[in-house]
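Complex record, four chains
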Amino acid sequence: MTIAREIGSRDISLWFADGSNYPGTQNIRQRRAWFIESLQASHAALAPGQRLLVEYKPFEPAFYHTDIADWGMALLLARAAGPHARVLVDTGHHYLAQNIEQIVAWLLAEDMLGGFHFNDRRYADDDLTLGSIDPYQVFRIFHEIRLFEYETGRRADIAYMVDQSHNLKGKIEAMLQTVATAQELYAKAAIVDHAALLDAQQHTDLVRAESLLQDAFATDVRPAIREWRTSHGLPVDPMQAFRESGYLERITAERGARTTSRASSYA
Amino acid sequence: MTIAREIGSRDISLWFADGSNYPGTQNIRQRRAWFIESLQASHAALAPGQRLLVEYKPFEPAFYHTDIADWGMALLLARAAGPHARVLVDTGHHYLAQNIEQIVAWLLAEDMLGGFHFNDRRYADDDLTLGSIDPYQVFRIFHEIRLFEYETGRRADIAYMVDQSHNLKGKIEAMLQTVATAQELYAKAAIVDHAALLDAQQHTDLVRAESLLQDAFATDVRPAIREWRTSHGLPVDPMQAFRESGYLERITAERGARTTSRASSYA
Amino acid sequence: MTIAREIGSRDISLWFADGSNYPGTQNIRQRRAWFIESLQASHAALAPGQRLLVEYKPFEPAFYHTDIADWGMALLLARAAGPHARVLVDTGHHYLAQNIEQIVAWLLAEDMLGGFHFNDRRYADDDLTLGSIDPYQVFRIFHEIRLFEYETGRRADIAYMVDQSHNLKGKIEAMLQTVATAQELYAKAAIVDHAALLDAQQHTDLVRAESLLQDAFATDVRPAIREWRTSHGLPVDPMQAFRESGYLERITAERGARTTSRASSYA
Amino acid sequence: MTIAREIGSRDISLWFADGSNYPGTQNIRQRRAWFIESLQASHAALAPGQRLLVEYKPFEPAFYHTDIADWGMALLLARAAGPHARVLVDTGHHYLAQNIEQIVAWLLAEDMLGGFHFNDRRYADDDLTLGSIDPYQVFRIFHEIRLFEYETGRRADIAYMVDQSHNLKGKIEAMLQTVATAQELYAKAAIVDHAALLDAQQHTDLVRAESLLQDAFATDVRPAIREWRTSHGLPVDPMQAFRESGYLERITAERGARTTSRASSYA
């Protein structure tokens, strides 16, 4: 927290690996009490304007129980910590089949959504690039945020972060891909006709309501995004621009030179 | 609630099948607001001493989202409803791999556990007889309750209910089996050495702590339960007593006679 | 099978609800042997040109074990039945997180894919309309079929069927929506550049290979499909055409008149 | 395989981490063909009496698709490899809710079960100690093996192995615990009354059949195992014997002395 203050970071994002591997080995309620105690102490050390973001994860690396297993535990701990604590949603930290956008909607309604760690996954916390497995789900998450903003007339105060593990793709390429995907899926969410949607929901016109989401998702927003890039003096195709820039080759050469003098390195 | 008052039922147990089947068709936050409104109205109608028990379920019969999907939503709704609302845990209403006893421990710590609907399952809400698939899990749930009572010195105020669907087994046989299993698993939980367990947990002696649970579970408590039955003038083997009683044959004959005059019946 | 022969149905599609609800109550290997015996007898009764399609399902309505739980069991039974038996894939009959398109690719490689029962789901066998929850997955299934056809130069002999349960949407509307969605997702799969894809796979160019799928999926194929409908003399917007046709009102009135004389009806 | 031959190891156990992380990046059918090719080459290099054991795993470290995702793929690859290839079942390598003992029963019926990697888990491939999360499931696996042996009159040729990751427990303690648990759960499976079980199954007497498994599981077999240890001159309590032996302290001191001269070590 001292570091966060010095570098001017607003959000202190907390993920705890703690828990237990075997039934009986730890006292679940005692550990909850310890968590409340330590989060309150952390909260008291916040500078004005700073926030605590409490992350949850139902499994791994603690296998039998993780201390903050789900959004319910994270919310209760954040409330117990103090008024500037919020919940952080890592999209990969859920049970299979869990409706993540519903959790997002509830956290928004409870004024407890602090931020996201975005990534995608198939089975566990796979940390794949955003939207690579289930793009419609990411779209629905963005949609819940946009609908909240439309209905309340105010901006949701959310820290958008990416938490991925690029172990096969090039790291910079993967990040470019992630940002481009986020732009596309957010743009699709932005063109949902909210007034028509609320009307269809109000009249329980299921097919019309559903189609409003589906039509927005089916729309090809890439031309509009390319135009936006051009109008802002940005490369139309970020991936191509990166590849043509020679940046990767340059820093690889520089870092390689720097690290040959050492015994080992992750460059 | 009028009926509950008239028949002297303390607990009003609420399970809502509501939700939506398709993304976009319903407004999740609006429905949450309606739920708060209606639960507050219900709470206001409680007679002195009565409680509202709010049940959660993550899927089925609403397939895309169920309004009260998990214990976190149930807890927030129960808190919003009023001081006499609690959460009801149906053991079959969880995501796969969810640690149910951890939820039980949290609800106890938050003073929000109202009751159980017991059953067992493999994949979904299968409503099989208690302990038929995973008896060690039921034992761990009972253990968390017993440990809470040991540490706090007071009885947890929990409504124990069975919510099963006996579509192949005879209904009375299945209930006898369920009660006998509950007795056995509860008795195993009751013989855990709590003082030794807390000591082992305190010293992070993992194998000793875990073994205290495992040894209790491995103990054959059936002889003690049989003795207890004898000492209370109860049949030593309830299933055998039921079969020898002729009760099933008698009521089957009686109901058959009564129903032959009607077009259809579930007897 | 007699009926199938008389009405000229090529495929006998078999789904078995059988299994057991409780460990120990049935002999798994004995039941497998009975299945082989009965499927061989059924296969022997096939008319020339007819096929047996063996469906699998890992849960429900048998809760502890279903006799044909997965594609592996279905394939082994189909092989044991005879040369004209194939596997039927119901997209909702899988474990959570299972990669369905991989199973489709294997069945194609083994020449054992007979057909599909299409639907979508979030948690269990929800039987929602195709692509309503995870459209990218349906696209990937179609892609594996198209890629197989591209590489082998022959048409995959697949029976495409819809197996959904429209309990909230109007049944005809839901089917129109399903067919339109299938057309769109299949069209997206059809525009994948297979030659470029195989080249990128060959060179382990991950981002390029992935992007070829993603770009096809991001393409808005609705204008092309509308054109195709016009060129074939079909209504451009099938849903609107249906609504304006008055068909639903007419048959509702007709069936209502016919059924008022009976005690009960599902109209 | 050369090493296996030289050290006289009968079983070559193969687990492949291969697969892909993103849709489209690899050709699933091409990789299957490569697997068949390489497994056939491996099989050809087997010495007389040796076996290939093909392991499957549905996820991790390849996140989108693993080449040998389930027992069906492993069985087909083993059959394609040659007559001395069998399937290896790692109990942690399954989808949630999958009935593992059913897979074991099928592999036995197909004469394709080669061995086990035992461990336990809650969510993913947690590699916890055997029976620590779901002991009844391990019992049911042993039961299927015993029942197969009872019915066929021959011993199942199975390589029993332990594949766990002891990252919190002491490694030797964890192995002692594992072996003791395996003894107990196997002993419980050994006392199931097979003749009575087959009779109850034959008569569809569900409660009696189920109770025969449950009663065996509820029996405390620890006294009999202790007696067996005594009669074989083994320590009655292996864990206590190990702790009193001073073995751990001795090798820790020895290895510590040996490794202080090196830069780094895993001792």
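Note: Chain D has one domain: 2-259.
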